[in-house]
Amino acid sequence: MKKDKAISPSLKYFFKHLERRSEQIREEVEAYQVSHNEVPFEEVESFFRRIMTQNIFIFTVGLSGRPESTILNKAIFNMNRVVRLYYSTSFDDNESGYIRIRPDRATQLIMVERMHGVRPVPEVMYQSHDECHVVRFIVRWLLRRIDWKKTHLRNLELYKAYIDQERQEQQAKEAQEEARRIEEQMAQAMKKLKGKI
Questions:
Q1: How far is residue 72's CA from residue 16's CA, in Å, rounded to a whole number?
Q2: pLDDT tens digit string along 68-127?
């Protein structure tokens, strides 16, 4: 009975190799996970979700192939961490196109690609690790295409919220300055009072 329960040298050899291989695989998985972390993309998605709700119009190529003004809500599609911004929607598939913004885990970059035609091949327009740089690129791209005859700042809810926030920040800054000034005056008065005593 003892011989059946004892670990033979061949089993020891097998388990030692099994342990080594298991450790190698665990290290490879950890190295892959470290090098292929999730690319932060929340700020870009949040930016597009917020501006989609506004009455912002951009110039696009319409169905007939002529330039037309399209509300941003109809030009942006956001699904599964991929944002599509259509600049051309035509019956002729060769003339249809959009900008695709997506995180790429392999390169650890956020890619901004132009997709145009029937079977589009991605043409990299911009890539960056930083979400803010990508948003800056998209803002510049959008500013060149905004229809200013239909888009009015006074009609944008986000702009009104932006103005309110700026005003509140300015008031808070002025209140801090006032409190600092009063504190300095009090300190000077205390010095004068101590000097007289």
A1: 62
A2: 999 999 999 888 889 999 998 877 777 889 999 999 988 889 999 999 888 889 999 999
pLDDT in tens, 95-105: 889 999 999 98
The DSSP line for 174-193 is HHHHHHHHHHHHHHHHHHHH
Q: Which amino acid is at 160?
A: K
Can you tell me the distance from the alpha carbon of 89 to that of 99, in angstroms, rounded to the nearest whole number? 12
Beta-carbon contacts of residue 61 (< 8 Å; ≥ 6 apart): 67, 68, 87, 88, 89, 90, 95
- Tokens at 8, concatenated: 């033979």
Show the tokens assigned to 169. 């920040």
- For residues 61 and 89, the answer to whether their CB atoms sit within 8 Å is yes
* N-to-C CA span, the chain: 101
Helix (H) or strand (E) holding 140, with range, is helix 131-143
Long-range contacts (CB closer than 8 Å, 24 or more residues apart) made by 118-125? 118/93, 118/94, 125/99
Distances (CA, A) of 175 to 168, 172, 183: 10, 5, 12
The model carries a pTM of 0.72
- Residue 48, amino acid: F
